[in-house]
Amino acid sequence: MAWIALFFAGLLEVVWAYFMKLSDGFTRPGPAIATFVFMFLSFGLLAWAMRQLPLGTSYMIWTGIGAVGAFIVGVVLLGESASPMRLAAAALIVAGISLMKLATP
C-alpha cells in the first residue's frame, strides 16, 4: 500500500508543479490555490508512505516521478523542448528510480 501511496504522491507533485506554472508566480489566485491543495495532498501521501518505506527511497522516487512527470507535462502541454539531451536526462532519472525500487526490500 505504501508504494501505491508513493506513486500517487509523485503524480500529485506533477499536478501541483503544473498549477504552479499556471499561477504565473502566484499572481493568479485559482492556479495558486490549486497548487497549495495538490501540494498538501502530495506531501500527505509522501508522509504516509514514509511510515513504511525508507526516507531515501521514498524521497528519491517521489522527486523522480515529479521531475519526469513535470518534464512530460512541459513537453506535451506547454510546448517545451524534447531535445535528445533532455530525453536522455529523463531516461537517466527513470533508470535511477528503477534501480532504487529494485534495491529496496
Our count of domains comes out at 1
Instruction: Give the fraction of residues assigned to helices.
Output: over 70%
Question: Helix count?
Answer: 4
Order of helices and strands: HHHH
What is the global morphology?
Answer: flat
| Structural class by helix and strand composition | mainly alpha
The unreliable regions are: none
End-to-end Cα distance, whole Å, is 14 Å
Question: Nutshell version of this structure?
Answer:
This protein has 105 residues and is mainly α.
Model description:
Helix 1 runs antiparallel to helix 2. The model has no long low-confidence stretch (mean pLDDT about 95). It contains 4 helices and no strands. The protein is mainly α. The longest helix is centred in the middle third of the chain and has 24 residues.
Question: What keyword list fits this structure?
Answer:
single chain, 105 residues, mainly alpha, flat, Small_drug/metabolite_transptr, Small_multidrug_res, transmembrane helix, transport, Guanidinium exporter
What topology does this entry show?
Elements: H1 2-22, H2 29-49, H3 55-78, H4 84-103
Helix pairs in contact: 1-2, 1-3, 3-4
